[in-house]
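Model: Ready when you are.
Researcher: Fold this.
Model:
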Amino acid sequence: MSEVRFGQAINRALIDAMTADPSVILLGEDVARPGGPFGVTRGLLDKFGPERVRDTPISEAAITGAAVGAAMTGLRPIVEIMFMDFVTLTMDALVNQAAKARFMFGGQSSVPMVVRMPHGGGINAGPQHSQCLEAWLAHVPGLKVVCPATVADAYSLTRAAIVDDDPVIVIEHKALYAAKGELADSPTATPIGRARIAREGRDATIVTYGAMVSVALAAAVELAQDGVEADVIDLRSLQPWDEATVLASLTRTHRLIICHEAVEAFGIGAEIAARMADVGFDELDAPIVRVGAPFMPPPFAKTLEDWYRPDAAKIVAAVKKTMS
């Protein structure tokens, strides 16, 4: 094991994948010589050359469209979208082409491509560079969506996405890029669709993903001081999501809290709550509670952004609400 940063783990995943498979290429704005806006692709141009690591024009639609064509003709492209907010410009290629190809061609063609994108706040980048739009993508049949919370998963989920034969969206929280954690010397891929129990408890289940996992763990520590032990589940994969693990936890704790940085309305939490209210209704001893951002764009000012994003105090309050 060695200690590396979250962004370095993704960088290593890209290097290992490109070394193992010459069909893997990288496309995006400033991904070559500059090394990406957050330094994640630093050094890849020197290792693999301009034929496989290509800076592109500032056109997310063109980048993604080219990647769809490349994937359908034998390559495994990795696209970097500088900020998740700009996924709006890729939607035809992603939603109408990449996600539908296997269906449209009767299973004879797939689109083995990866689209990486940072989401979320924490760096005061304002309303057009801080959104969490993962619910849009998880709503599209044919797309897989993952969101790592740890250094180990940053590596393993990226590798799993690259070898998958269908389009996979890898969402990286920009506030995590500098976070440190342990990475095995010979790491393995994490299967897409399998959650992780980050902390075991008996009194309530907290389901979350990405950067909110560490916030939920901090809330669990605070709750433990009052004698409340919370199960914290890191979804890791949003589409498909690990319904069985969430239901098994709910069966033990009988209370469910779902937390994400995205706006609460019509989000990932709403889908999980609806499903658990169906298949887990008999296990519930209290109403399901969601914790998310208010229905407004992310503010720019630090004080307002801190208020806007869910924190440990809001999760603690939600758990205590279910306990009452």
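Researcher: Now this one.
Model:
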Amino acid sequence: MFPRRFASLYFPNLLTDWLVRRDPALAEKPFAICRTARGRRFVFAPGRCALESGVLPGMSVADARALEPELELFAYEEDRADKLLASMADWSIRYTPLVSLSPPDGLVFDITGCAHLLGGEWPMLQDIRARFGRFGYDIRVAMADTPGAAWAFSRYGRRGDAIIPPGGQKDAIGPLPAAALRLDEDVVLRLNRLGLKSIRQLIGLPRASLTRRFGRELCRRLDQALGEAGESLLFHRPEEPYMERLPCLEPVIHRAGIDVALQDLARRLCQRLSREKRGLRRACLAVHRVDGRSQSVEIGTGRPTRSEAHILRLFSEKLGQIAPGFGIELFVLTAPHTEEMTAEQDGFLESGHGGKDTLPELADRLATRLGRSNVYRLLPRESHIPERAVRRTSSFDDTACCAPWPANPRPLHLLRRPEPIEATAPVPDYPPMLFRHKGALHRVRRADGPERIEPEWWRFRGPARDYFRVEDESGQRYWVYRSGAYRPGESANWFLHGYFS
């Protein structure tokens, strides 16, 4: 029977280390994460260079900018720390299957019976430090008989001496401050006012007096740290992958057998997705042959689905790529990308009348045949500049758009960059009578406009544009504009920006 042992991992700069990991250039720049509370904007977590400039947590943004004018600010994300810790917990299963989150900046491992697999506690501790260090995270690790003692020593203990020997937690945490017992700030403040600043001072006091003055939480945390009371940890459970397997008694060598296997896998996968109220956005079918080789085909959808018929229809477009060879002995269907799915979405994605595809299903089938990059939607974007007013998306659930379509007509073919033209107008605010584009002369028969589009002052600096819809003698319609206001004695700059027909 192994004695109970725990390891506490503390990430003092979790969020700023994550930003530097995403953008290594930030390591040499002053930056900080800021948040807003009660109408006040303050620094939540400064980076290393900002700390060296005197920027401290809790400082107002105005004061921080006064100390460091080049300070770059990032908005605080409420759930970012929890997501980071959850992903770290999934990765840490290499050390122990029992990992508990200790928000907002730590993890707790139950390493009972695990340390000897890595050569002992010290080699394990060194490996944890080295691996997270290579990921770019500053980390402190401590090991002890209790989660409370390990937590306290990882945050308030000596940095080099991180392993508390069995039964030594009382002597190890005695010199640490009362805050190391995971107490509320007001309790710690009251203890300090009474001169009770270390855990050693609390250990010798009657528990009844401590409970009467400071509540039960203080004695409970003290007993948990010393090992005199048990502590329950809520261990992180890694997300079970959406995967269905079908081994075969006899190798499958015909297309009919592949269809039957895929149908069984899709049915089981869709049943699980239905129970968990999710839909897949991407699925992969892998086949493993008797000769040791494997093949895979993948499908994607524009919005989450758990329709078995739709999934089978998409896979049927690609099953011809699978070569059974001497036979397939194992089928594996996985859904690496899933999303929450409501009952309304489920009903919308059901096949239409007469077995016809709905619009999302038709788009998925076209994307399977032509490639997902060749099938997309156009949605308006909140911008006045025509070349920025439209964005592409392949998802039917993409609703992150609050801008309406422009009220005035827009050309079907918008040029990536406006092309200069030579134009002649009777008076400055009139449309052109004729214009020359790439050597060809176009005489204008009809025109409509102007439509004034001002530059976005927060993004661009440039002249305003006056757009005209013009039609030449051959019936071709164009979208042209004059750049800038008319100035006497200066020739106007005209550009062609699109074609209506």
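Researcher: Key takeaway?
Model: The radius of gyration is 33 Å.
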